[in-house]
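FAQ: What does a ligand-bound record look like?

Like this one, built around uridine-diphosphate-N-acetylglucosamine:
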Amino acid sequence: MKKVHKLIKIAIIAGARPNFIKIAPLIKELSKVKQFSVKLIHTGQHYDPVMSDIFFKELNIKKPAINILSGSGSHAVQTAKIMQGLEQVFIKLKPSVVIVVGDVNSTLSAAIVTSKLHIPLAHVEAGLRSGDMKMPEEVNRIVTDRLSEYLFIPSEDAYENLNNEGIERSKIFFAGNIMIDTLINNLKKIEKYKVLKKYKLTKNNYCLVTLHRPSNVDNKKMFIKISKTIRAISETVKIFFPVHPRTMINIEKFGINKILNSPDILLTKPIGYRETIALVAGSKMVITDSGGLQEESTYLRKPCLTIRPNTERPVTVTIGTNTVVGDNMKLLLNLVKDIMNNKYKAGNRPKYWDGRTSERIRKTLVKELLSKNNI
Ligand code: UD1
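The answer part, i.e. the structure of the complex:
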């Protein structure tokens, strides 16, 4: 007689650009388990085609089963809308486990709803801490980890962070960095030189800039100071700057167009995943405030200068190619000089940034959800 398998319903939640990069290998890997029924739920936090659809297409992610269509809003409004939407979905769907990734508002909202419905929660990219409670993401990380049953950490420093917050070791699984799974899966598909040609850039002869943190781009004084420094750097090396919607609003509002108006600075709309990776791989250096780019540049061994007072990804500094410059523009200019003179550190790759993180997560979930319950 054919054995009938009991299905474990897994709901995976994604809402913003960095989430899509993290769920792509996870969905693929978990769908290999015949006892798992995997449903993707999009919260709608990011909705513009260049912020959402393009990632689904490029990364071959199946269409979400449901989209909550939350849209933008203040933190409270956005979080509340996502919570309201997800509560309805979970009551109907009755997932056996909910998986959230990263640290965006969608992650937090899903964590709270899941926990209050007494559904086990798994957090991929758990345990990262910047120590900066003014960052909305830090609040999201702390709450999500506190509510999680399964915490998949990307690097070993997370053990200590979680231990300091009293989280039991038995809930923590060192799985590695899932962003790197996607990076490795896509590296072969990247036609670097075509992208460089498209933007008239030459290999190792331009700097990729991205900025979107509220502390950098919502603060007029800070954004002007950074923009003047970028303008100064453009006299040495060409700048390629794809602009996040939040950043574009403020470029216009603060009259920053004038500062960045130079033939050596190319501003574009947000770009997709493959172009971003190809542009990191082809660059001389990256200047950013993004979490993901700190990691991707470390993997690709490209110098990265981070305009933030801290990082929740310290291995990119201690092992990788990253330096956190804070708001010290003099330091930034000096490091750019070092990089141009090939005097900057080379960096290494942290442990388990090897393309097998989603496989390790699958194995753990099979053990925890199936083997331990004799399914
Ligand atoms: C969010 C995350 C941040 C992540 C970033 C990646 C939180 C708290 N922040 O920041 O951690 O690094 O995504 O991009 O979750 N907008 C559009 N189109 C869109 C989405 C947003 O125009 O598709 C505009 C809206 O004006 C919106 C603003 O961008 O108000 C900010 O969007 P929001 O999702 O609130 O935060 P991000 O800055 O994108």
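Follow-up question: can I read anything off the structure? Yes, for example: Residues 75-93 form the longest helix (19 residues).
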